[in-house]
Design brief:
The complex is a heterodimer. By secondary structure, chain A is of the alpha/beta class. Chain A contains eleven helices and 14 strands. Classes of the chains: A alpha/beta, B alpha/beta.
């Protein structure tokens, strides 16, 4: 069996639908069409009446999910692209994010955000919005980087009693493969040491994990031993695992595909500096996409976001300090 | 025939009084909810002016008939859901909100439904069918849709959802998306549009350009109704039909009521932008006073009975204030500071 990251997302939804009557799917083109990326392929046939096409109304899609969740259901919303969730921003941050604190009634639902860039996708089909949503109270923000995590974390997200922003990376959909679906994974909120090392720590998540691993392998040829931490969750951040890694290496580079101002990288570095300043042998570094809209042409796009090459360069700087 | 003099008004349950032979048996019970709302809101206004309420106080003065006439047709115990808005004190009380809830919420009591974490009109009891509005207008409509979709998926029939917006909220994308969504799903939704002529200070000619907001119903493919929001009898009849149709499976219903907000946007606002001509027009009729005159003209109750009801209501409001005012304030040291129900994932103390 050969399972892609996209298969894992499809299969997790099938399992959730099969095992929990409270689960239903709502989104644009997800029923008989199977979704823009086919993440819901044939689910409408297998689960009649529980996979529903929505109008092009992101605000109302999320509002609908909130109402159903208040009433005891476990909706999964598919945003066609993460970028379009901006239309639902109000419902996500002001309605869903505040509901439990205000009323004591939790709103368990999942919003799947097909995230991140791809060749030719341009400014409006490429964004990584985890930092934006992580900024607001009341939301859990997940970023699976592997086939196994895509599967178990989506199931965990459905089971969680709070709203989850599930950032799945489009670049991983078809190319990332595993032998089989896992039976269990790490709990939500726990980071994973994806590669053990002693000379420097790279903290990253989602598609950037694979760029960071390539960079680490390249530097291994020069006898550098790089540790790579896969955060898995942007909120909460597993600060303990990050600090333990920095304690081993003394150096940290944070890598994320989101825009540079504020955000996940800045948050991780702030925590490391505040709580582990004494562990550092060099100033912390970060790599983000550039502070421009995400460009269309592959040449520009490849130079806009962090890559194995730019991570390698940043690591050399960090190691040479 | 007048109601028995000794009978206490059924404040906590708007059951029609069988002894009343008014054209609509709900007239007198609804009037009582309106009166309770007015007395309570007058009290809240004076508490605000004396500095005992922080933030703001937003009144439904002039909108009590339109608000309560919808809510008395809802059945909270039967599973109906209601998302009131800023000027729906009368509707909230008629739906079943305990009188102590608004008092505690305005005073920030930790014993109220919002526990000092949210205030004034942003209150609700979602588990009991009353959703807690957020300030962003139009945003509650799709949430009601979600509850109704949930009921449909679970095979529950015969329950309706209702919400109220103002003329201003009809300009939002949220309202448009949600009403269209309800129509596509043919949900049992009743949307009350209180056209009170002003969204804060903005008059309707800067809000929309159609001849009448009710015409929008055609565009959405939902049933539309128009009513005089100052006339309780008419409001009761129109909402009665709209709620029945929604309950029967005829899909969303939109009721537009014409009236005038007889207060500022909040008690901080003197509403000096309302033209004098409008203040003297039929729109400015006080629904509570008009309903009172209707009762007296028709001898459904005597003046003495009405005075007695008011006295009882004033006492109830005073009791609620005394209770809520004697309660402790929220204690920040005892606050959980956790915005997730799954406690171990909370980062609530991060910035402290």
């Amino acid at each position: 069996m050969n399972v892609t990251y996209l298969d894992a997302i499809r299969e997790a939804q099938a399992k959730a639908l099969a095992e929990d009557d409270r689960v239903f799917l709502y989104g644009q083109d997800i029923a008989s069409f199977g979704g823009a990326f086919k993440a819901t392929k044939r689910l409408a046939e297998e689960f009649p009446g529980r996979v529903l096409d929505s109008p092009i109304s992101e605000d109302a899609m999320v509002g609908m999910a909130i109402g159903a969740a208040i009433d005891g259901m476990r909706p999964i919303i598919e945003m066609q692209f993460a970028d379009f969730s901006s239309i639902a921003f109000n419902q996500i941050v002001n309605q869903a994010g505040t509901h439990f604190y205000r009323t004591g009634v939790p709103v368990p639902f999942v919003i799947r955000l097909p995230s991140g860039g791809n060749k030719g996708s341009g400014p409006f089909h490429s964004q990584s919005l985890e930092s934006l949503y992580a900024h607001f109270p009341g939301l859990v923000v997940l970023m699976p980087a592997t086939v196994e995590d895509a599967y178990t974390m989506l199931l965990d997200a459905v089971a969680l009693d709070d709203p989850v922003i599930f950032c799945e990376h489009k670049l991983l959909y078809y190319h990332l493969k595993a032998e089989a679906l896992p039976t269990n994974g790490l709990p939500i909120g726990k980071a994973r040491i994806a590669r053990a090392g002693t000379h420097a720590t790279v903290v990253t998540a989602s598609a950037m994990l694979h760029e960071a691993l390539k960079a680490a392998n390249q530097l291994a040829e020069e006898a550098w031993d790089i540790e790579v931490v896969d955060l898995r969750s942007a909120k909460p951040i597993d600060t303990d695992t990050v600090l333990a890694s920095v304690a081993r290496t003394g150096r940290i580079l944070c890598v994320a595909e989101s825009f540079p101002w504020g955000g996940l990288n800045a948050e991780v570095i702030a925590r490391v500096v505040a709580e582990g300043f004494h562990l550092l042998d060099a100033p912390p570094l970060r790599l983000n996409s550039r502070d421009t809209p995400i460009p269309y042409h592959p040449n520009l796009w490849a130079a806009h976001r962090p890559t194995a090459a730019s991570i390698t360069t940043a690591l050399r700087k960090l190691l040479g300090f | 025939m007048p109601a028995a003099k000794t009978q206490r008004p059924p404040f906590l349950k708007a059951a029609p009084n069988d002894q009343i032979t008014a054209p609509n048996k709900l007239f007198l019970p609804t009037y009582k909810w309106m009166l309770l709302s007015r007395v309570l809101e007058d009290k809240l206004g004076s508490l605000y002016r004396s500095g005992k309420i922080v933030g703001g106080v937003y009144l439904g003065r002039g909108q009590e008939a339109f608000s309560a006439a919808l809510a008395v047709h809802l059945d909270q115990a039967g599973g109906d859901v209601y998302a009131p808005l800023i000027r729906d004190m009368a509707g909230r009380l008629a739906f079943g909100e305990p009188l102590i809830d608004p008092m505690r919420t305005y005073l920030g009591s930790p014993l109220g439904p919002m526990r000092g974490r949210d205030g004034n009109i942003h209150r609700g009891r979602p588990r009991e069918g009353m959703l807690a509005m957020i300030s962003h207008l139009g945003a509650m409509v799709s949430v009601v849709n979600g509850v109704l979709l949930s009921r449909r998926l679970r095979g529950i029939k015969g329950q309706v959802g209702a919400t109220c917006v103002g003329d201003g909220a009809t300009s939002t994308g949220s309202f448009h998306e949600a009403l269209n969504q309800a129509a596509v799903e043919k949900l049992p939704l009743v949307v009350a549009v209180a056209n009170n002529q002003f969204a804060y200070s903005t008059s309707t000619d800067r809000q929309y350009a159609c001849a009448d907001l009710v015409d929008r119903a055609i565009g959405y493919g939902v049933m539309g109704y128009r009513c005089d929001g100052t006339n309780l009898e008419e409001c009761l009849a129109v909402f009665g039909e709209a709620v029945s149709r929604a309950r029967a499976g005829d899909g969303p219903q939109m009721v537009v009521g014409s009236l005038l907000r007889l207060s500022g946007h909040g008690e901080h606002d003197d509403a000096s932008y309302v033209p004098a001509t409008m203040r003297k027009s039929a729109l400015a009729g006080d629904c509570l006073e008009l309903a009172r005159l209707r009762i007296l003209e028709s001898a459904w109750a005597s003046e003495e009975e009405l005075d007695l009801w008011k006295t009882e209501i004033v006492n109830q409001v005073d009791d609620a204030l005394e209770l809520a005012g004697s309660e402790p304030e929220p204690d920040p040291t005892g606050e959980a500071w956790c915005s997730l129900s799954v406690r171990h994932l909370c980062e609530g103390n991060l910035g402290a």
